[in-house]
């Protein structure tokens, strides 16, 4: 399979070198870096001010012990707990997880995308099972069970993807793996690369290079076994904590040398820890060494969106909060759900505190972190701290991206609680967190710089979303996500030029997702110029997607990976594309699953592997993706990938996709009714009804087919005038392949049918004419008024020109969702 990119690697960077304001971070493949850097000779890989340190410290700690299908690891929980406690003592914001599944791991990685920015030092610690396949290493979730050679992407977590995802967002990362126990899948083979080569799972980890400014620390040497230990902790974790507590401010390199010696001695030489480092700045666990300047919190995505909390009436909605049994809810505080909230004054009022009264913060809200500022200006977690009323007045609530569907929030409000202790009494404060309306109506899925209240394109109400975002921009023009979200609404309204301006502003304000969005618009422009089936993106588009990859955007992982995989031209670039797609898959991006599914179901491809392709599509549908539903409907209806044809299953999948807003799924439902494959047999009226739904979503084939059925077969409840309207609406969709055929169909209709359809459209546009097929003076007058109202050129007197012109005006007033295609 040879599909050629429209560029060579030697010119990749030259085409986009002037486009990008910042150099790459070298967390990517050679081709991606070449796209971003332009020239390795002239552009540094990663600009760092090594005289200062990162402003924020963040840690992910995972201990997997209770495995479901493989041997448990008694010490993994204890190892994770002691590591979490140590990191918390050194000022890290610790996210501690135990016994997490593959889906949980996806959530942890998504959380990291939202939480980590370019001024964050990150520590990742994993205690649990791990293994290697070929040159790749995998961490094992507790629900893993490799029953099939196709299981690895959905049963294990790629270490390469993990360090790529974290590294694309972080300034510096230290990944510590106490996970090379005996291979739990000995004798198993799996597919882990783009091709069909089976590879055996092996004990231990293979050697892996660290991305720039990273340190990968393994509990044992490549291919060797690490011991779980006979005490409470493993030999490696015990030595690590012992040495780190003695000299927390020691450089990581020096500390690890002492750990290696200690483990070697403790295990009588049977276990030798190993590391791979590309650190170019000092790194230590110690709090004092790691922070040498006051902390000024910077918010990625451009600007800080800040709000002020207030005390709400005590009776309002408090009953909806489910208080913990140990606490009594005494007050309701309302606060904006945004980047930062000045919550301290409202808490003082709610608790009736004086400046000298003391309270201890005992628990953060579920959807944010309470931060207090120390004498150096560093903001640290306030949990466990005792604060006076005066100190409490400076308390901030830092909002966390929540990743919840907007439609799931009753009343558009997030309900939460926080807890404090006064003396011996613990008190719970009920919180009502109110999202910004732009976030609520236009927040995007897996957007690293968003607040995580999400709508898929089919869930947007674009007019409402645009008005909300314009209002937010007017109040806070320096917040990048508002401009990006306004761009989403503009795209949905078909206003691409305005959307581009909004995305460019979001990009300039640092919003990561804007790069991918600009690449998507540029790709649409390319297809408009060269035809909708243009094979490959050009240099400009690839450069935009590559910058999104460098910013750590999962949508850009998918977009660039898809271009490399389908149009790479060389096996090396195709492999890079596959790796990018797998990185998107690691955070649960269903677009990647759908694309890989059809990639392996292509019978003309060298990579044809139906069982593998079906696994990807099933995983997408299992995550309630409308495109996954439609794809599985096609699998069942056509018997793709050697699947038995199952009309009932196909119909169920198509209906789910259609109900979710998929643009082509209604036509697939209609075809099943038309061909007698839906329950109850042939039903042409139902088919036309579903074709009508498809047409209103901009599918010209649906409109033309409905028109043909009404005109040629006679459908109860529809007239020849309706047929003309269907055909005209389809013909007015000029950029769609079936539009011209609909116009040809119209030309075969009698003039009276076309005139009656024009009269129906006039009435749909606000006129009041009699629909009789005789386009007399009254209809002509109404036509002139409509033309004047919408400022379009008068159509010719030909019936076909007239009805198509009216259909074009109809689409102006009732635009379909171009962002769903």
Question: Can you walk me through this structure?
Answer:
There is one protein chain. This protein is an alpha/beta fold. Helices cover 44% and strands 15% of the residues. It has 31 helices and 24 strands. The strands form five sheets. A six-stranded mixed β-sheet has the order 2-1-3-7-10-11, sandwiched between helices. A six-stranded mixed β-sheet has the order 13-14-23-22-16-19. It has a five-stranded antiparallel β-sheet with strand order 6-5-4-9-8. A hairpin with a 2-residue loop joins β4 and β5 (136-139). α16 runs antiparallel to α17 (539-550), α21 packs across α22 (626-638) and α26 (700-713) packs antiparallel against α27. The model is unreliable at 1-26, 39-45, 289-300 and 315-326 (pLDDT under 50).
**If helices are DSSP runs of H or I spanning 4 or more residues, what is the number of helices?**
31
Query: How helix-rich are the residues, as a percent range?
Result: 40-55%
Please state the average pLDDT score.
83
Strand content: 5-15%
Radius of gyration: 30 Å
Q: What shape does the CA trace take?
A: globular
């Amino acid at each position: 399979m040879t599909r050629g990119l429209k560029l060579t690697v030697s010119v990749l960077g030259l085409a986009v070198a002037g486009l990008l304001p910042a150099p790459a971070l070298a967390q990517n493949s050679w081709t991606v870096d070449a796209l971003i850097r332009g020239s390795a000779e002239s552009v540094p890989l990663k600009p760092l001010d090594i005289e200062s340190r990162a402003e924020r410290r963040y840690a992910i700690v995972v201990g997997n012990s209770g495995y479901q299908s493989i041997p448990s690891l008694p010490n993994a929980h204890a190892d994770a707990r002691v590591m979490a406690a140590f990191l918390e003592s050194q000022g890290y914001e610790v996210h501690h997880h135990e016994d997490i599944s593959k889906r949980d791991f996806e959530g942890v990685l998504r959380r990291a995308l939202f939480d980590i920015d370019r001024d964050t030092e990150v520590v990742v610690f994993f205690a649990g099972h791990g293994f290697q396949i070929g040159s790749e290493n995998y961490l094992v979730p507790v629900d893993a069970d490799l029953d099939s050679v196709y299981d690895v992407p959905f049963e294990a977590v790629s270490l390469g993807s993990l360090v790529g995802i974290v590294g694309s967002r972080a300034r510096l990362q230290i990944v510590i793996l106490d996970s090379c126990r005996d291979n739990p899948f000995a004798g198993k083979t799996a597919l882990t690369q783009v091709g069909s080569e089976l590879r055996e799972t092996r004990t231990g980890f293979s050697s892996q290079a660290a991305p720039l400014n990273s340190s990968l620390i393994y509990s044992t040497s490549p291919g060797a076994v690490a011991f779980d230990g006979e005490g409470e902790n493993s030999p490696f974790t015990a030595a690590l904590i012992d040495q780190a507590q003695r000299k927390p401010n020691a450089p990581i390199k020096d500390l690890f040398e002492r750990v290696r010696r200690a483990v070697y001695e403790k295990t009588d030489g049977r276990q030798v820890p190993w590391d791979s480092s590309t650190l170019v700045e000092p790194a230590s666990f110690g709090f004092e060494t790691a922070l040498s300047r006051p902390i000024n919190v910077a918010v990625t995505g451009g600007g800080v969106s800040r709000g002020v909390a207030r005390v709400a009436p005590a009776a309002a909605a408090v009953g909806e909060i489910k208080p913990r049994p140990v606490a009594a809810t005494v007050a309701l505080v309302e606060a904006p759900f945004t980047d930062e909230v000045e919550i301290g004054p409202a808490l003082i009022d709610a608790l009736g505190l004086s400046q000298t009264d003391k309270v201890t913060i005992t628990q953060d809200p579920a959807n944010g972190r309470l931060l207090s500022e120390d004498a150096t200006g560093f903001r640290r977690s306030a949990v466990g701290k005792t604060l006076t009323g005066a100190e409490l007045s400076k308390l901030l609530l830092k909002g966390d991206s929540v990743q919840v569907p907007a439609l799931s929030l009753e009343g558009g409000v997030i309900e939460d609680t926080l807890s404090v202790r006064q003396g011996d009494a613990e008190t719970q404060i009920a919180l009502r967190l109110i999202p910004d309306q732009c976030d609520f109506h236009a927040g995007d899925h897996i957007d690293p710089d968003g607040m995580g209240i999400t709508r898929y394109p089919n869930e947007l109400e674009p007019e409402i979303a645009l008005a909300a975002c314009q209002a937010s921009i007017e109040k806070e023009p320096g917040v990048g996500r508002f401009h990006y979200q306004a761009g989403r609404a503009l795209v949905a309204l078909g206003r691409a030029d305005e959307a581009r301006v909004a995305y460019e502003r979001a990009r300039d304000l640092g919003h990561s997702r804007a790069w991918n969005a600009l690449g998507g618009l540029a790709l649409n422009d390319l297809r408009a110029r060269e035809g909708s089936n243009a094979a490959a993106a050009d240099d400009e588009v690839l450069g935009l997607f590559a910058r999104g990859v460098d910013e750590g955007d999962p949508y850009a992982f998918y977009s660039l990976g898809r271009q490399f995989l389908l149009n790479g031209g060389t096996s090396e670039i195709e492999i890079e594309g596959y790796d990018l797609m797998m990185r998107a898959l690691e955070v649960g991006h269903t677009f990647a699953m759908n694309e890989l599914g059809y990639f392996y179901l292509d019978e003309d491809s060298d990579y044809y592997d139906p069982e593998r392709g079906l696994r990807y599509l099933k995983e997408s549908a299992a995550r309630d993706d409308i495109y996954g539903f439609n794809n599985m409907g096609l699998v069942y209806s056509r018997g793709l990938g050697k699947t038995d044809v199952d009309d009932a299953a196909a119909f169920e999948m198509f209906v789910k996709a259609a109900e979710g807003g998929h643009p082509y799924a209604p036509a697939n439902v209609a075809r099943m009714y038309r061909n007698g494959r839906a329950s109850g047999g042939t039903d042409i009226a139902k088919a036309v009804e579903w074709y009508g739904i498809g047409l209103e979503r901009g599918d010209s084939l649906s409109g033309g087919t409905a028109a043909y059925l009404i005109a040629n077969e006679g459908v109860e409840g529809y007239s020849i005038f309706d047929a003309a309207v269907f055909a005209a609406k389809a013909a007015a969709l000029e950029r769609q392949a079936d539009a011209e055929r609909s116009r040809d169909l119209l030309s075969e209709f009698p003039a009276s049918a076309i005139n009656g359809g024009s009269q129906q459209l006039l009435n749909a546009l606000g006129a009041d004419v009699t629909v009789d097929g005789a386009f007399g003076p009254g209809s002509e007058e109404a036509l002139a008024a409509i033309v004047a109202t919408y400022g379009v050129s008068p159509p010719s007197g030909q019936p076909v020109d007239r009805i198509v012109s009216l259909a074009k005006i109809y689409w102006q007033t009732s635009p379909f969702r171009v962002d769903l295609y």
